Amino acid sequence: MLRVVTAASDEPISVDAVKAHLRVTHAVDDDLLAAQITSAREHVEQFSGVAMTAASYVWHPDAVGQCGWRPFLPLYPAVVSEVSYYDGEARVIAAEDDFRFDEDRGDLTLGTWAEVAVEFETAPGEIPVALLSAIKLRVQAEYEAGAEDAERLRAAANRIAWPWRRVVGV
């Protein structure tokens, strides 16, 4: 489970850029479009695993293996600030002793703990243009498309974002 601690304060794409994509010339729906941009960005981030805004999170991975475990953070690039586990009380794991974070790959090497919590902050770099296009398509699906066209636009957005998925398959 991924929980937002500090939400993003800005978006990687402006309302004006989305309005140009939609050919909207009025300002009546600017607040609606801003909310739809946030929703679309969150979906594309979760789908691709590419962080597009700076925010902080707590992530509770589903399970930890018996002989160590290497989970990928759900959003990357990122910086891990703390890893803790619960064994009746919350305990912080010392990075140098019991876990390692590979900043180049975005994966952790953990020991064998239950109920792990990973606190991290996303640190986005340059965002691929295709992911920005996926955001625009998802906003278009919500803003102006009928049910059938909306589903096609969402599917197109997912296809565009697919090459940037960090973990494909099992």
Give an overview of the whole structure.
- This protein is of the alpha+beta class.
- The chain has helices at residues 15-22, 30-48, 95-98, 129-143, 147-161; strands spanning 2-6, 56-59, 78-86, 90-93, 100-102, 107-109, 117-122.
- Helix 4 runs antiparallel to helix 5.
- The model has no long low-confidence stretch (mean pLDDT 86).
Average pLDDT, to the nearest integer? 86
Strand order in space, largest sheet: 1-2-7-3-4
General shape: elongated
How many helices in DSSP terms?
A: 5
**SS-based class:** alpha+beta
N-to-C CA distance = 18 Å
Give a count of the beta strands, DSSP E runs of length 2 or more: 7
SSE pattern, N- to C-terminal: EHHEEEHEEEHH
| Radius of gyration of CA atoms, rounded to a whole number | 18 Å
Strand-residue proportion: 15-25%
Query: Main β-sheet, in a few words?
Result: 5 strands, antiparallel
Which blocks of ≥5 consecutive residues have pLDDT under 50?
none
Helix-residue proportion: 25-40%
In short:
With 170 residues, the protein is of the alpha+beta class.
Features:
170 residues; elongated
Could you give the topology of this structure?
Layout: E1 2-6, H1 15-22, H2 30-48, E2 56-59, E3 78-86, E4 90-93, H3 95-98, E5 100-102, E6 107-109, E7 117-122, H4 129-143, H5 147-161
Antiparallel strand pairs: 1-2, 2-7, 3-4, 3-7, 5-6
Helix pairs in contact: 2-4, 4-5
